[in-house]
Fold this sequence. Notes:
Blueprint: E1 2-6, E2 16-21, E3 32-39, E4 43-59, H1 66-73, E5 79-92, E6 104-107, H2 111-116, E7 125-130, E8 136-140, E9 152-155, H3 163-176, H4 178-181, E10 189-194, H5 212-221, E11 231-235, E12 256-257, H6 262-267, H7 285-299, E13 300-303, E14 310-312, E15 324-325, H8 337-348, H9 357-360, H10 365-382, E16 401-405, H11 411-432, E17 439-443, H12 446-449, H13 457-472, E18 474-480, H14 488-491, E19 496-499, H15 504-507, H16 517-523, E20 530-535, E21 538-545
Amino acid sequence: xxxxxxxxxxxxxxxxxxVVIGDEQYLQLDDLVVVxxxxxxxxxxxxYGIVTExxxxxxxxxxxxxxxxxxxxxxxxGGKVRSAQVAVTRVDPELWVxxxxxxxVSRATGEARDKALYIDEMGRPLPVGLGRxxxxxxxxxxxxxGRKGGHMSISGISGVATKTSFALxxxxxxxxxxxxxxxxxxxxxxxxxxxxxEDLLWLDxxxxxxxxxxxxxxxVLGVEPEAFPSVSLWAPPRPRxxxxxVPDIAGRQDVxxxxxxxxxxxxxxxxxxxxxxxxxxxxxxxxxxxxxESQLRRFAVDVAGVPGAIVLRDPGEGHGPGALVxxxxxxxxxxxxxxxxxxxxxxxxxxxxxxxxxxxGRVQGGTVSAxxxxxxxxxxxxxxxxxxxxxxxxxxxxxxxxxxxxQSLHELGQRFVVGALLAEAFAExxxxxQRFPLxxxxxxxxxxxxxxxxxxxxxxxxxDIAQRGRSLGVLLVGAQQTASRVAPEVLENAALRVTGRxxxxxxxxxxxxxxxxxxxxxxxxxxxxxxVISQPSIPVPLVVDFPFPPWATRKEEVxxxxxxxxxxx
Length: 569
């Protein structure tokens, strides 16, 4: 269908051109078009493009008041001309010549649409939303699951950009389109951190507000509209909950409690995640933490009759790995973080005597005192995460989606849990040496865990995941309000970049240089459910809409028990 011709009053080029639209036709933003040009000696070349702006003007009007004379009075000759700016997405065959002025411009539909969006060249095209024409828009899954690239970065204003909603939609496409995902989707494991409210603790419940219109959109994407079928929910224990650990959750009861025993705290080297403030790296506190970690592994011995508890004994006493000992009279048995602090104080900052150099190294006493002050502060804020007894580690193999609710924790506690679980997931993949099954981590507020400035154990780990994770099958879906505050090493390794509504000042930052000027302007006005996506397969960013979720995103949206909201859809 011809919609107009290439404008002949200005130069065309291989990057963009303008289209004069016919009187009976129209072009809107994000429409796909194609122009076929006869090139002497080379044959026909098809130039595909996407509309980035639409304009209209009265030809013949010289002054602003001429608009009334042409439109209302008819006393002045003039004609309405509508035009569109088109950004070139592809030239086929790849002979980079400009379209001819006056060339017929047609809508790109069917096979032409696939070529305009490079779908014909994608190894595994995965739908990630709907275009302006109501048809699916795809990304090449090879650029997410590690074959050619990995990771996804999502940016936008909080509450408006729907960053987490899009991340969950993307996960649903990964788990729902096994025909496309293939081997990468077999035994796929997803770790989701719930950092605000309790919104993500209802993914397995149907949404009472789900509508037939939303069901049609999901049908176009090829996925059955339903809540996530395989979800396990975890939360930290409630502070001062006593011997019976109760999950610190208000809305749901069927939530598992997680915690670490003192033995797991030592074996997994979790002490470092209590010192994740950027300032700690500048005053050598991180050095003391590393020294203490190594000594804890040497000194820690299991206690008979108290699962998970340890005592600290000199390795010269001959207690080998796995030994069980009975505590000596007066010997301190460590059952929680407070016990760690008290025991370490005897080695590092005793009231009488000198610090043990095996534990402190050659750092100044002020640094050791600062280390102990932070450790005692951690006891108050996150001490209840260390509990004796049987292991309460999070079992990520129990379900396909593991949601960890850390919203009730102090900021230090949130960083501790995130660091501990990231370290566990990464160490597991390093130990196996196998990329499959894939392990996907969804982390909001990424700028808090991998800030642009400063150093911390979590930031170092996230950079390591960004740089090496795709080869090991560990993939990061990071979300943040402002990409300019995230470590560049993390952003630069994200093959897929997604943006919702942006703050006007943020949109001008260099981190969004992948967007066209027109797209940057639109990003300030995007509605919830509309995102801009960039991928290596396509040279221009695409604007897509993703459908309303069939799963509940808050307690108020959960359908009543017995109601089948999907019946008849």
